[in-house]
Amino acid sequence: MVMGIVGLAFMLTCYGGILSIIASPVALGLGLSAKAAIARGEQGGYSQAHAGVVMGIIGLVGSALLLVLLVFGRFIG
Q1: What is the number of other CB atoms lying within 10 angstroms of the CB of residue 17?
Q2: pLDDT digits (tens, 9 = 90+) for 6-61
Q3: What is the dihedral of CA 29, 1, 22, 65, to 10 degrees?
Q4: How high is the pLDDT of residue 38?
C-alpha cells in the first residue's frame, strides 16, 4: 500500500510520471503477491493488499496518460 501512495504522489510531481512508472508496478506486484499469501493463509491484511493493487493500477494508468500527454504536447506545441 505504501508503494501505491508513493506512486500516486510521484505522479503529481514535475518528473513524477517517470518515477511513478517505476513505483506503480512495484505496488501492483507487491499487492498481488500479498493477496496470494493471504489466500494461502500465511498472513492477514486483505484490505491493505487490495488498496495497494488499486493504487498501483491508478498510478500506472495515470502516469502513462501523463507521459502520453507530455510527449504529444512536445511534438504539437
Answers
A1: 20
A2: 887 877 776 666 788 888 899 999 999 999 999 999 999 999 999 999 999 988 89
A3: 100
A4: 96
In this predicted structure, what is the pLDDT of residue 44? 93
Length of the chain: 77
Name the residue among 62, 47, 50 with its Cα closest to residue 10. Answer: 62
CA–CA gap between residue 20 and residue 1 (Å, rounded)? 14
Amino acid identity of 75? F
Neighbour-count burial of 49, counting CB atoms closer than 10 A to its CB (0-12 exposed, 13-18 middle, 19+ buried): buried
Q: What's the CA gap between 30 and 65, in Å, rounded?
A: 23
Grid coordinates in use for 59?
A: 498510478
pLDDT of residue 21: 83
